[in-house]
Amino acid sequence: MNESNINVTSPLIPPLEEYIPYLEDIWKRKWLTNNGHYHQELEGELCKYLKIPHISLFSNGTLALITALQALRITGEVITTPYSFVATTHSLWWNNIKPVFVDIDPVSLNLDPDKIEAAITPQTTAIMPVHVYGTPCNVKRIESIAETYGLKVIYDAAHAFAVEQDGVSVLNYGDLSILSFHATKTYSTIEGGAIICHTPEMKQRIDYLKNFGFEDEVTVVAPGINAKMNELQSAFGLLSLKYIDGAIEKRKAIDALYRSGLSSIPGIRTLTEMPGVKANYSYFPIFIEKEKYGMTRDQTYEMLKSRHIYARRYFYPLISDFPTYRALPSAARSNLPVSAQAADQVICLPLHAELSETDVQRILDALKSR
Ligand SMILES: Cc1ncc(COP(=O)(O)O)c(C=O)c1O
Questions:
Q1: 236 CA distance to ligand 1 middle (Å)
Q2: Which terminus of the chain has fewer Cβ atoms in its 10 Å neighbourhood, N or C?
């Protein structure tokens, strides 16, 4: 029998018939972009849904990151994690900022606060941590280090849509946070992203920056970029908000199936669930310990692929191993042992709202049959 493909993710797409009236309305209004009706409505709805004070929508998460650095006028060196998607560090490079890699904590896989201070130099102006897989960083420790040394904090919260710690959105920490609404994310606007900030003044500055710096028809207040979200994306996002809670519930159920099914397999470890965290179940990373499991992570990846199960090696290679960054002193593997081990051991299993129990069972059976 030919087994069907199981992909690592599948986009959350609202019913077409519900999207069509939005399209008809956009056609009628003839306002396709530039802070249109649906753009404004989505910003308002997201503030309510995410429990955040201000949000500025972007055409993607990478431009949101690049613009966030511009908004805070960050220069010099920025401390960041190598265990993320390349866009985190690329945003620094595009701003002519030197990334300084600091190792991660073995439990959360986020930037290790104990190692940040040693990496601070007179050139350091900010910290850019990532809530990787949606697990909150140690925001209190990072805040206290940033305060002591007068540094800004920009969270790459691309994975952390709707994640809360003790009832507070993680997006409220740091000077700015950015989200990605890429099609592969739990919540999507096809392509898209956002910056979350604390004051109307900062929101205003970000809004200017994402629209070439225009304040009005004839006034350009800053060297801005074009990073605006259009009306089709905004309407898609607005409609998807109706379905996001259901999608997260389904992901949660799959997470539970994985956790109970995997607990009996020696050599496979799951990510620790953090107390007080309302998760979004974006990813299901597992650690493969080759001595106990009998296969390396890469062999496991190939074995699953041969059974048409497409898991992904997020995050491998480490960002610090890419040619652009590997000559940096902080990119040395000896400086990043925990990140290096995670990059060698972790694989993300398929996880999305349409994955069936039968699919999950097929994945568990494959992992058990090594
Ligand atoms: C951690 C992280 N940062 C930034 C991005 C970039 O977001 P986008 O793809 O929306 O540009 C992504 C995802 O794609 C990501 O996973």
A1: 19
A2: N
Per the CB < 8 A criterion, the answer to whether 3 and 363 are in contact is: no
- What's the CA-to-centroid distance between 158 and ligand 1, angstroms? 6
- The alpha carbon of 190 and the centre of ligand 1 are apart by a number of angstroms equal to 13
Beta carbons of 347 and 285 less than 8 angstroms apart? yes
**Pocket lined around ligand 1, Cβ cut-off 6 Å:** 60-62, 84-85, 87-88, 130, 156, 158-159, 180, 182, 193
| C-beta separation of 174 from 154 below 8 A | yes
Question: Residue 287 pairs with which residues in a beta bridge?
Answer: 269, 346
Task: Compute CA distances 304 → 64, 362, 369, whole Å.
Answer: 35, 10, 11
Q: How far is Cα 72 from Cα 60, in angstroms, rounded to an integer?
A: 19
Distance of CA 317 from the midpoint of ligand 1 (Å) = 16
> Which ligand 1 atom lies nearest to the CA of residue 180?
10
What are 33-60's pLDDT values in tens digits? 999 999 999 999 999 999 999 999 999 9
Which runs of consecutive H residues, i.e. helices, occur in the chain?
Answer: 16-29, 37-50, 61-71, 87-93, 139-149, 200-209, 231-262, 290-293, 297-306, 337-345, 357-368
Burial of 338 (0-12, 13-18, 19+ CB in 10 A): middle
Question: Residue 183 in contact with residue 103, Cβ under 8 Å?
Answer: no
pLDDT tens digits along 246-273: 999 999 999 999 999 999 999 999 999 9
